[in-house]
Design brief:
The chain is mainly α and 127 residues long. Helices cover 49% and strands 0% of the residues. It has helices at residues 4-22, 44-54, 68-76, 101-119, 123-126. The radius of gyration is 34 Å and the shape is elongated.
């Protein structure tokens, strides 16, 4: 069995731990400074190249950001510039606000069916 003094020391150590933890929480509306000196946002553009020069380092170039097509192709797995109906390359013709893709697709399919129906020969012409 544990002694009463051991339990008291555990309780005190827990209370001490909570006190030390709370001491790291800043007061409400306290402005935190993340970087200071040459890493501060205001001075980074002018002082960081001087630091690189003093340390004889080369500044790293930022990689190019991927474009819309690359992001969509990676996320969805299909080429956003290829038509899902006919497979041809898409070109921008018109933008329709507040129209969902399924609605546009159904309108397109209905138009294709209508064209097929108009192209069908009359029954008396076949016979």
């Amino acid at each position: 069995m544990r002694s009463a003094s051991f339990r008291a020391s555990l309780r005190n150590s827990g209370e001490n731990w909570i006190g030390r933890y709370i001491s790291h929480v800043p007061a409400r509306h306290f402005k935190m400074v993340r970087y200071s000196g040459f890493l501060a946002n205001r001075k980074r553009g002018s002082l960081l190249p001087l630091v690189y020069e003093a340390l004889q380092m080369r500044a790293r170039k930022k990689p190019e950001k991927p474009g819309f097509a690359v992001l969509i192709k990676g996320f969805v797995g299909t080429d956003p510039y290829r038509c899902i109906l006919c497979g041809d390359r898409r070109r921008f013709a018109v933008a329709q606000a507040e129209t969902h893709a399924m609605e546009l697709l159904s309108e397109r399919l209905h138009g294709v069916e209508k064209k097929r129906w108009l192209r069908m020969p009359e029954l008396d012409q076949c016979a």
